[in-house]
Amino acid sequence: MTPFETLANAIIEQAAKDYRLALRYHFKHPENPRYMREVTEIERFFRSDWYTALTDVDGEYLIREIRRRVRVEVAI
User: Fold this and answer.
1) Mean predicted confidence (pLDDT) in 34-47
2) Cα–Cα distance, 5 to 9 (Å, whole number)
3) Which residues contact 54 (CB under 8 A, 6 or more apart)?
4) Which residues have CB under 8 Å from 35's CB, separation 6+?
5) What does the pLDDT read at residue 37?
6) 8 lies in which domain range?
7) How many Cβ atoms are within 10 Å of 18's Cβ, its own excluded?
8) What is the pTM of this model?
9) Tell me, what DSSP letter sits at residue 47?
10) Cα–Cα distance, 70 to 24 (Å, whole number)
């Protein structure tokens, strides 16, 4: 793996972790606008040209998958 690929993977991995955490808080506290702003901001990143330049993983797929997993976690 090249240094660029390592950095790109780290950026996406951190964004996914941040998104998962923001979603958990948002699902547990939907009345708090701070969490919705964070969710929206990270989703914007997953749909951005920059994200597309970093990876071939479909951003919409990643959003759906993380949302599905967080819903299961929150429901437990």
Assistant:
1) 96
2) 6
3) 8, 11, 12
4) 22, 25, 26, 29
5) 96
6) 3-75
7) 15
8) 0.91
9) T
10) 6
The residue whose two tokens read 């969490």 is 35
Does the structure show a pLDDT above 80 at 76?
Answer: no
| Residue 70 pLDDT exceeds 90 | yes
By CB atoms closer than 10 A (0-12, 13-18, 19+), residue 15 is buried
> In 10 A of CB 45, how many CB atoms?
16
The CA distance from 76 to 71, in Å, is: 9
Domain count, the chain: 1
Residue by residue, DSSP assigns 17-41 as HHHHHHHHHHHH-TT-HHHHHHHHH
Mean pLDDT to the nearest integer, 19-43: 94
Tokens 């990876």 belong to residue? 55
